[in-house]
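This part of the workshop introduces the protein records we will be handling. Getting from the letters to the tokens is the skill we practise here. The record below serves as our worked example for the rest of this section.

…
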Amino acid sequence: MKIPSSPPPAPICVPCRLAAIGAVVLAMAGGFAYVAGCLTPHRLTTHRIIGAFEADNGPHPGFRRNHAKGVCVSGYFDSNGNAAALSSAGVFAAGRTPVIGRFAIPGGNPSAADTSVPIRSLALVFTQHDGEQWRTGMNSVPLFAVRTPEQFYQQLVAAKPDPATGKPNPATLKAFYAANPETQPLQAWVKGHPPSSSFANGSYYSVNAFRFVDAKGEVHAVRWAMVPETPFTPVTDAQKAAKNFLDADLDQRLQSGPLRWHLIVTVAALTDPTNDATHMWPNDRQQIDAGTLVIDHETAQDDGPCRDITFDPTVLPAGIETSDDPLLAARSAAYSLSYNRRTREEALNPNLHHPQQDGDRS
């Protein structure tokens, strides 16, 4: 893990201290402080973002505020050395790196049906031989709905269930989408790509841009994806009627052997934006197969190795850096606050019980 740079002297507040964890440059530290609300107290804060998640999903003590339903996995990354020319990170040197991960679905309700959302997620932590870590949280869509933390918060507010129906108000959501046309590319992509029938046969994308730094200090803007060897099939009618098919399917597949994905790194052209997660780069950009992710074990999150990991995408080893995407600082700050809240809830109530069918604790 890279040691964060120290921010300039400023009044200290608890959210700023939490938000600054994982910052690697002065600008990023400023971004964390901005999101936490310490520099601009009347603007968006991390507490407001997490509060909106809780308002949308209801109280679920001891669970993550987003991606509450999931399962721990473990395995390794077998690098072929192809990406070593782009990044000096040890994970890309030829050889094997141990991995702990987590499959999940978006949302803060651990009892939600697997078909409640069309998206799956895969989060990973690679631990290099030198002890540095690369953490990444990926989704099964290659782009995001909005560009900024402010828009994301507005989207959460618009999606708050109406007490009369228990569902979001269609008129409110329509008004949000009309006011934010950046959401249209993701909506179009989702309409043209049905959800996968399994965690195992889906592709998972970094969504945000990052920077790889090579041994000469040259910087390369990149995104990446985990592309499965298992052939894609869409969710079936039988699965649509089931509530918890994803975990059961994963367990059954792993009983037959490990599952594999290829880490495909896409290198941006100079004209490609790195600060806009709603914008996909053209398909003709250079792509490098950096190696194979192998998942060979799963464990329930109640006692699994991913339980106490925050998959903060700004925790990066030397050779990988954050880009200027404003969502990265917001994600890191929100993960930190979510972790603090759920662990405090468990400390205050050691008897919290999370039935397996309701999703795993995380």
In short: The CA atoms of residues 201 and 232 lie 5 Å apart.
